[in-house]
Write a structure and sequence with these properties.
This protein has 250 residues and is an alpha/beta fold. Helix content is 39%, strand content 23%. The chain has one domain: TIM Barrel (Alpha-Beta Barrel), CATH 3.20.20.450. The protein has an eight-stranded mixed β-barrel with strand order 1-2-4-5-6-7-8-9, surrounded by four helices. A hairpin with a 5-residue loop joins strand 1 and strand 2. The longest helix is centred in the first third of the chain and has 17 residues. The protein starts with a helix and ends in a 12-residue tail after the last strand. Bound molecules: guanosine-5'-monophosphate (G) (2 copies), manganese (II) ion and sodium ion (NA). Manganese (II) ion binds next to loops. One guanosine-5'-monophosphate binds next to strand 6. This is Diguanylate cyclase/phosphodiesterase. Keywords: Membrane, Transmembrane, Transmembrane helix.
Length: 250
């Protein structure tokens, strides 16, 4: 109850901060994009992770406002970078239900000056629980703006094949649970290869998530995974740690 009231105030006062986690090319280890990950800097409880407040924001009807704050902050930050890297922003499925969501994205891109091509919006397989035709229509409207859609936590829902068939999206983010034992377990590695191959043949970008060890990374290299994200390469960091993106290149 106390946290509810605090969250309402936090949205009014914008007590949120975005951390940024690198997405790298598996072969060259070059930086290819960053994912924005929200944190709540609570005035007395300290930093609160999204697992503890995003669903509360959904229950309290605050998610559209919170989502807007996050999108504005992420696009504002990315627009300052000296390299045209992608910024990936997580969405709640409820944001897609707001009648003015597409227009709000148009407005944010316009006011921040971020080219649509540099924005990736991450959704999860739970969008399939909503009216599928409506979701498809909205995703196509968003993609028509020039941005890309990523399917986050891919493989953890119940209907991955139906998702590949029915939902228009550009990027597969393979859930970290599939990566954990790929170095030791050939069957686990086969599953990752399956997703890399299917994604590639369907013309999608594949990002392998949760890469924590060199052994996992080596295995992903062998499988031909194009992009990876994980603690091995970088933890989520504050914007102030992205100085190398704010300086003019020599
Ligand atoms: O950063 P962390 O591992 O604590 O994130 C936990 C969960 O919170 C992940 O599922 C992630 O997708 C989600 N999350 C992180 N940032 C955002 C955000 O800005 N918006 C939404 N809706 N979810 C987020
Ligand atoms: O659900 P989503 O993919 O948006 O969640 C991203 C979350 O995964 C972030 O909160 C981030 O902190 C976490 N994460 C990123 N890399 C790793 C990793 O290598 N290992 C683990 N366990 N978590 C990670
Ligand atoms: Mn994500
Ligand atoms: Na994920």
């Amino acid at each position: 109850k106390a946290l509810e009231n605090d969250l309402r105030l936090a949205v009014q006062r914008n007590e949120f901060e975005l951390l940024y986690q690198a997405q790298v090319d598996v072969m060259s280890l070059e930086l290819r994009g960053l994912e924005a990950l929200v944190r709540w800097n609570h005035p007395t409880r300290g930093q609160i992770p999204p697992g503890l407040f995003v669903s509360l924001a959904e229950e309290l009807g605050l998610i559209n406002e919170l989502g807007h704050i996050i999108l504005v902050a992420a696009c504002t930050e990315a627009a300052t970078w000296m390299r045209p890297l992608k910024i990936a922003v997580n969405l709640s499925p409820l944001q897609l239900q707001a009648p003015d969501f597409v227009q709000s994205v148009v407005d944010v891109l316009k006011t921040t000056g971020l080219p649509a091509e540099r924005l990736e919006l991450e959704i999860t397989e739970t969008v399939l629980l909503d009216n599928r035709e409506r979701v498809v229509k909205i995703l196509n409207e968003l993609r028509a703006l020039g941005l890309t859609i990523a399917m986050d936590d891919f493989g953890t829902g119940y209907s991955s094949l139906a998702i590949l068939r029915d939902i228009p999206f550009d990027t597969i983010k393979l859930d970290k649970s599939f990566v954990r034992d790929i170095a030791e377990n050939p069957q686990a590695a086969s599953l990752v290869k399956l997703v890399v191959d299917v994604g590639t043949s369907l013309n999608k970008t594949v990002i392998i998530e949760g890469v924590e060890t060199r052994a996992q990374h080596e295995r992903i290299r062998q499988l031909g995974g194009p992009l990876s994200q994980g603690f091995l390469f970088a933890r989520p960091v504050r914007a102030s740690k992205l100085g190398f993106l704010h300086q003019a290149e020599q």
